[in-house]
Amino acid sequence: MAFLMRLCTLVVNVLCLPLHLIEAVGLYEIYKRIFPFCMYRISINYNKIMYNKKKELFLSLPEFRKAGGQLTILEIGCGSGTNFEFYPPGSKVICTDPNPHFNKYLKKSMDQNDHLTYERFLVASGEDMGSVEDDSVDAVVCTLVLCSVKSIQQTLREARRILRPGGALYFMEHVAADPSSWTYFFQHVLQPIWYYFGDGCEVSRETWKHLEAAGFSDLKQRHIEAPLIFMIKPHIIGYAVK
Predict the structure, then answer these.
(1) Among the four 125, 139, 162, 196, which has the fewest Cβ within 10 Å?
(2) Residues whose CB falls within 8 Å of the CB of residue 87, separated by 6 or more in sequence, listed in order
(3) Distances from the Cα of 241 to the Cα of 68, 197, 221, angstroms
């Protein structure tokens, strides 16, 4: 099966040569302008399907508010702001995303979720949030983000840096399937074309291993099967305490 998987992946890579060329000459940047619209539509549907899971995940957020203080949340890869509705009223939110073209959809979500205070929108990658001070936020959130960052390890290091002691990183990510499954097979075979469709998304990452090795003091993590298309059914969900 491993040989067949490598062979099929090679065939798909060859078929994707025009896309590889488009990226090499810089024309892929055009899609980055269109991608926020695509993700905005997809995220609405994802939220409907995963509503109960997201509500359950973020239910414990108020526990990380400092006594007498305002809960400060920084979201990595906030996109169009589809997590805002799940945040506790009165929270202060710092939004970050490497794609500035999300701003239009982010503003719409901000207007719809006026139970929150929005401090700023930083155009920054998860690997480099240098303008955010050390130990400065109560919670960091990343959902469907660690699949597309260039370095999971560096993104988690940055999350730990900006979290105050006792703060928590919340995550909901699609991950690699069981290696013995056909889902795992097709995750690898179709990855070359999925990369372009998902603006760098990689469906075959074993993200849970990086979280386990990131040095958090406590990790609450579980694997679930999301009611989504087979390529992104396997998910991990939980939080990690600094």
Answers:
(1) 196
(2) 58, 61, 73, 93, 113, 115, 116
(3) 20, 33, 11
Identify the three-state secondary structure at position 97.
strand
* Conformational region of residue 68, where left means phi above 0, alpha means psi within -120 to 50, and beta covers everything else: left
- Residue identified by tokens 């703060």 is 167
pLDDT digits (tens, 9 = 90+) for 205-242: 999 999 999 999 999 999 999 999 999 999 999 999 99
* DSSP, res 135: T
Nearest to 113 by CA among 47, 169, 63: 47
Residue 65: Cβ within 10 Å count: 17
pTM for the whole structure: 0.94
Residue 2's pLDDT is what?
Answer: 85
Asked if 184 and 228 count as a contact pair (C-beta separation under 8 A), the reply is no
Q: Which ranges of the chain would DSSP assign to H, the alpha helix?
A: 2-15, 17-24, 29-49, 51-58, 103-112, 152-162, 182-189, 191-197, 207-212
Q: Burial, 122: exposed, middle or buried (Cβ in 10 Å; 0-12, 13-18, 19+)?
A: middle
Both tokens of 32, joined, read: 């980055």
